[in-house]
Structure formats: C-alpha cells, structure tokens
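Lab channel / #folding
Pinned by the channel admin:
"Please post every new chain as: sequence first, then the structure tokens as a reply. Keep commentary short and put observations after the output so the thread stays searchable."

First post following the new format, from NK:
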Amino acid sequence: MASRAPYADEAFELLPELEERSAWFRSRNELVKWALRRYFPNARRLVDVGCGTGFVLAGISRGFPQLELTAVDRAPRALEIARSRVPSARFECADVSSLPYDAVFDVACALDVLEHLDDDDAAIAELRRVVVPGGGVVLTAPQHPWLWGGMDEYAQHRRRYRRRELSRKVRKVGLELRRETSFVSLPLPALAVTRLRSRWRADYDLAADLARSPRLERALGGVLALERRSIELGVSWPFGGSVLVVATRPRRRVGDDSRGKADRQGTSWNP
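Reply from TO:
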C-alpha cells in the first residue's frame, strides 16, 4: 500500500503549539477518551497508529495511566516529538500497511490517519489483525467530500468520507460496529465557509488557518463540549466535519488462544 508522510515536514514543528491551543484538537481528545471509557473500560494495551506528534497519545496517557501504550508512525521526526511528550510509551517506526504485531492490543486507534492512505481498506484490516478477539478499534476521519479545501490539499488527503462510508468499510473486514457519529456538527456552517473559501487561496497556511483568538477558541470549545455531551447521552449526529467510528473484533470460540505474540521484526524507535 503506497502512502506518504501526512504533512509537509515543517508542519511537525508547527503542530505541537497549535494542537495545545486548538479547541478542535482538545475536543477530539476528550471524545476519544470518552469512547475508550465507554467501550473499552478494561483495556490494558493500546496502540496509536499514525500517532503524529503525540498530542492524542499524551491525552490518553494522562487519562488512562494504567494503559500500556505503543505508538506507531512512519515519520521519524513525528516520533521524536511524540516521545518527548510521552516518554513512557513504546514507539515503532512502521507503516500502517505492515504493522509488526498480531493480536496484541486491546484497542487500536487510528485518528485522522485513514484519509491519507491509498488503500484504507487494507489499513482497517491491519487494525483488526493487531487487536485481540474482543478488542476493538477507534477511528476518526474528515467527513463530507463537499468540504474539501486547502487543509485537505496541504495534509495530502486522499479523500473525505461520505456518511456511513467508514462504517461500511469497518464491517467489510469483519469488525462489529459499536458506534458511529459525526462530530464538529454544531459549528459545521462556519467550518463550511472556511473550507470553501480556502479552495480559492493560492497558498494554504496551516498556522493562519488555526490561529484564532483565545476568546473564539473558548467559544468553540464550549460549543464542542455541548455537542460531546449530547454524544455521551446517545445522540449520533448525521452530519459534521468529522466522523467517529468504534468497532470490535468478534471473540473466538471457547478454547481458542485469545492473545497472540508480537512480531518483533519492526524497527523500535527509542532515540
């Protein structure tokens, strides 16, 4: 499966500061942590595939100190930054198309990763393979092709997902869907204006796109917190800038070995 580094090299230097102050990044972290608490309360081992600079990994580490964390990315510079954020995690320099594990983890996360890949079906099958029977996956991805804009071009996205498209792909590889919901739903009109305007900009500027005033970030954070609370109460939004999918790998029959061994032929990244 061919895939490229998800961002221009300079973005790895920009992202840590932008992530910390962005209401969108913080809200996604909280949604992921809620999904882990709700659907995988007994998880012991988690892998963050395509961990980037480790912002989500750091949030999971703070929220779930009992978890044994592994992070995978194919960009060495991203792994360096992620390791500085979560030095207790184990890091692997590897591609999502050939993960060096087999039925090892209770949860595999791929958060805004699949949209970068030519063959996302194969990647979802890999995520299924690395979790134990009864374990599961947590996925997020950008939604609605009509929202395509400068951010998608800059981030080298292959696609934005149509409604329920990701859920169908999850089922196709033999995972059982537990939850699907859009998010960034309440701010969707403002997001649409921003994304559509960016189509006509000659040069996309990541820092400028995410540079909002502290007051605006607080307001957006409040709106997203309200939306997240509705999701926690059972609302599944049919539209939104992003989609969350939670699915589980069916359990084996009684008598089958429920946990495999890691294949240690991958490259450990411990600078």
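NK: The mean pLDDT is 87.
TO: also worth noting, The radius of gyration is 18 Å.
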